[in-house]
Amino acid sequence: MSDDTIRLVTIGRILRRRWRLLAVLTVVGALVGFGTSLVFPPRYTTSASVLLPGAWEERELLTQTEIATSSVVLDRAAASLGWTGVSGRELRDRVSAEAADGNIIKISGTAETPERAQKLSDQVAQQFVAFAARIAGDTTDPETTSGPEALRQMVVQTSRRITELADAADPGQTVESVQGRTDLEKLRTALQEALDKLDQADPAANKANMVVMGSAARPTGEAPPTRMQLVVAGALLFFLLAVIGHLTAARMSRRLRTEPEIAAALGSALLGTVDVPAEQLADRPEGGGTRARIRRLLGVDVRWDVPAPQASGDEAGRRIRYRRVYARLRDRLPDARRLLVVVPDGDEIARRAAGQLAAEAESEPSPGSSGKGHPLLRVVEVPVSQPLVPDRDDESGALVVLSAGSWTAGELTGIAEACADADHEVVGIVLAGMVRALPARSAGRTRDAATPALAIGDHATGGSG
Question: Region labeled Disordered — which residues (predicted)?
Fold first, then answer.
């Protein structure tokens, strides 16, 4: 199986076992996004287009976009709008310009309402055209002309005067009259050529005639990010953070999962493994305070990073496992009368297994009135944060029962040290695992299959006695 497949299986396990927590965090993220939308009011954006006639290079268009958002243009636009508390400096964050295809400059304005966004874009476009015309030497007053335009008008007037002089010359065919008309025609041709050269030498005269291509369209929708986008983004962000948090916690987990690691941390030998049906854990009693109820409600009281429980046999087969573990314990300590069964606090699987093991010990027949060779088991739960084991009374040692993958090496070492501090020797370790019970079979088959198992168990117990 590849790493990618393992990751997909892990994510699927998170979704199945933590869906309540993920749903709550997703709703919280959506509420955070909604609150953010209330802090930042909606914005509306629209654009006005300005056409630049003539031939323009790319760098020249970029220069015009910078001019459109310059402080001079924005200050004039703010003064023309007359909005309270809005200056050219504040408009710098609301106005942008970009060069589009076809020598078009798009000026975009953002405001709190569609009407204000439309007015802002139109006003900035008009101020940009006026300022660009002023830079190029043009003027918006049609009554006054200067520079190249005045020269053009003078050339036109001179051409007309030459025509009048040519018509007023001697219509005869004398040498003087023909020579005079020829000289006047040459003068008019020279003036026209000079004007054409002037136009070629000053292309900015044609480029100065920028045109605003109509009023900006009134926006009909909010500019991103909209309220819905913020709500969806908040929900998605919290969902992803929750999944990543689970994966990171599992990646950094130091909990021991293998039998050799657990045995080394507790400094004792493993006596065997026993099974606890998942149905028994589901029927655990309610309680534990408000915090425990909240954990059960969110589903965080069940481990997600453990594989799905495997199918197990019937109740008779599981009891055989308990009896074999107890038989190994009895063979290990033939003269013991009582043993202390230490269970880490919060390990529900181990607590169920320890209770079943103690019940099996009580059901064992005693070979004599003294009960020698059949130690009784007393179960105690020890907190792993500050482990404290009861002092030795008449117990001959401590048996640690726990589930794999639930505790770190430091926590198990602390339990072993607490046992040693209370003068209890850790005589063995029992691992408890959660399994899935198979559906019940018919009554006839159950009796036929269960009778030999119980007979073997009784015979083995009697023989060992």
Answer: 354-375
Range(s) within the chain of domains with CATH label 3.30.1890: 43-221
Q: What is residue 422's DSSP assignment?
A: T
Work out the end-to-end distance of the chain between its first and last CA atoms, rounded to an integer number of angstroms.
50
At 162, the amino acid letter reads I
This model's pTM is above 0.90? no
Q: Are strands 211-212 and 44-51 parallel, antiparallel or unpaired?
A: antiparallel
Q: How far is CA 402 from the centre of its chain?
A: 36
d(CA 41, CA 113): 10
Cβ burial of 397 (10 Å; 0-12, 13-18, 19+) is: buried
How confident is the model over 244-255, as pLDDT tens digits? 998 888 888 888
Candidate CATH numbers 3.30.1890, 2.60.290, 1.10.287, 3.40.50; the one for domain 43-221: 3.30.1890
User: Would you say 95 and 48 are in contact if contact means Cβ atoms under 8 Å apart?
Assistant: no
Nearest to 66 by CA among 96, 104, 108, 101: 96
Pick the closest to residue 88 from 99, 75, 100, 97 (CA basis). 75
Q: Are 265 and 67 in contact (CB under 8 A)?
A: no
Do 462 and 365 contact (CB within 8 A), yes or no?
yes
Q: What is the 3-state secondary structure (H, E, C) of 375-394?
A: CEEEEEEECCCCCCCCCCCC
